[in-house]
Amino acid sequence: MHVLAAANLRLDAKAIDYVLLAFYFVLVLGIGYLARRQVSTSLDFFLSGRSLPAWVTGLAFISANLGAIEVMGMSANGAEYGLPTAHYFWIGAIPAMLFLGVVMMPFYYGSKVRSVPEFMRRRFGNAAHLVNGVSFALAQILIAGANLYLLASVVNLLLGWPIWVSVIVAAVIVLTYTALGGLSAAIYNEVLQFFVIVAALVPLTVVGLYKVGGWSGLVDKVTHGPGGAEQLHSWPGSQLTGFTSNFLSVLGLVFGLGFVLSFGYWTTNFVEVQRAMASKSMSAARRTPIIGSFPKMFIPFIVIIPGMIAAVTVTELTGSNKEALMAGHSAPSGATFNDALLLLMRDLLPNGMLGIAIAGLLASFMAGMAANLSSFNTVFTYDIWQSYVKKDKPDQYYLNFGRGVTAGATILAIGTAFIASTYSNLMDYLQTLFSFFNAPLFATFILGMFWKRMTAAAGVWGLVVGTASAITVFVMSKTGVFTLPGQGTSFLAAIVAFVVDIAVSVAVTYVTKPKPEAELAGLVYSLTAKESRQHAATGEDAGWYRKPVLLAGIALALTILLNIAF
Question: Which Pfam families does this entry report, sorted A to Z (predicted)?
């Protein structure tokens, strides 16, 4: 964190804080060691033997997404844009999570595929499978690098360790427990990390609100600061989208973020879907994202509000500093919006609580990176190595290979960390990646799942041309053909990728031959028996409060209320 003198951010950590941190690391590695006992096959390592209860996978589902980029990136967005950032949760997450649980999980879990690219292979053949597998693996390495860079920056600033030492220590800890216990170790640690993150951020939010004079004090300060009262209402969110027209801003949020980017991420991103696939029954798999949606809708209050508080109380981010950053220039103080949470912790938290807060931040980084690694090793081992390089080896070979791949991925992530370091708001970087990789994949997926006529060739060409069109929009924006501030370029790239993918898929379908219907049972909605999509809720899955559709209805109603209230 660049020009900002490290001394300004150095937290005054005392012995009690270091003891709490050491205890946390021992706990994390202990979970990895205990989880190793349950790993005897590659399915145990990559998918927890499909044996975990819904509440565990539901919390892991959220925690896997509550990585460094989510916690630091959303607080950075809170400092820069204010409450419109809540759209990433209420519009850009929950509807898609509910759709995944109600509509798509039955296909993933019922077809017994081991990954999302494997589902693509069954529906569209080897070419689409390979394109999806390679692009997903690349995306995970880039995102893991962003998590690692943030983690190293924070450890460097908080504890004074050099960046390279921080990167290696953090990477070794995540690698150790992921390579030991596979997905089970990652998931159980994600559940622990969820509670640690909440325990770190709730006190910070409460103390911060107290300092600014409660909600009314925050409203007053934001209204009279750069960005003004527009930052206190989630709609129309024009600062966030970069559109001057309110109508276009709402359209960009609802269609670009709420539909294309959001559904693309939550329903086809194997990092998330993998957690639900580890559940022990169809009902538990469907409930996983729905259970996760309840804490998800309240997380904005503990990540966005601290960012908003930082932007009106922390000297390095207020007044002319915030004006400069919002205009795309460097702040006179040298701080960036990515520093918001750290600066607030520096100003507000006493020792002891500081140790918990540091552990919470490190927990969020490790949860995000472990999720990237555990999904990367599954896709690389099953979908690339086993499918195209070494086909018929014994199961133990793939188990050992998966552990080796985890180590290789960690080294690559150390390499991609420096790419992330070039962005002053990491949310911009992340949304750009999603528009490249997830938006076209979602278009191919949703069309192939509901249109039985769609052909294998359409699946491949739609994906390739859709991805290329998103990259074209990004390049045009970077070279000045058009300019959209905020995250508008990502929204536009996602919309273009989705529309182009659909158009190309439809055109190619009508000049190529479809698969016989018999081969599409369980892969296309209209050709799958209702019973195999639902599965009877018996035993542990019985009870009205375990019905996926009812739970999803409650979550959706609460989300609509939050959108109206804010």
Answer: SSF
Do residues 376 and 270 make contact, with C-beta atoms less than 8 angstroms apart? no
Write out the DSSP string of 33-91. Answer: HHHHTT--SHHHHHHGGG-B-HHHHHHHHHHHHSSHHHHHHHHHHHHHH-GGGGHHHHT
- Bridge partners of residue 279, in order along the sequence: 52
Torsion of CA 13, 18, 21, 27, to 10 degrees: -170
The answer to whether the beta carbons of residues 169 and 22 sit under 8 Å apart is no
3-state secondary structure 347-361: HHCCCCHHHHHHHHH
Query: How many angstroms separate the CA atoms of 451 and 448, rounded?
Result: 5
Digit-coded pLDDT (tens) for 218-233 = 888 888 877 677 777 7
User: Are the C-beta atoms of 505 and 454 separated by less than 8 Å?
Assistant: yes
* Size of the chain, expressed as the number of residues it contains: 566
Residues with Cβ within 8 Å of 208's Cβ and at least 6 positions away in sequence, in order, are 305, 306, 309, 310, 313, 344, 348
Q: Is the pLDDT of residue 330 over 60?
A: yes
- 203 Cβ partners below 8 Å, 6+ apart? 349, 353, 356, 357
* Amino acid type, 295: P
The per-residue pLDDT for range 253-299, each reduced to its tens digit, is 787 777 877 888 888 888 888 888 888 888 889 999 999 999 999 99
Cα separation, 456 vs 442, in Å, equals 15
Q: Which of 402, 357, 14 is nearest to 202 (CA)?
A: 357
User: Which residue in this structure is represented by tokens 């809540």?
Assistant: 86
For residue 276, what are its two tokens? 């639900």
The tens digit of pLDDT for each residue in 343-386 reads 888 888 877 777 777 787 777 777 778 888 888 888 899 899 99
Residue 236, preceding peptide bond in cis (omega within 30° of 0): yes
List phi, psi (to 5°) of 83. -65, -25
- In 3-state terms the chain splits into helix, strand, coil percentages (rounded to 5) of 80, 0, 20
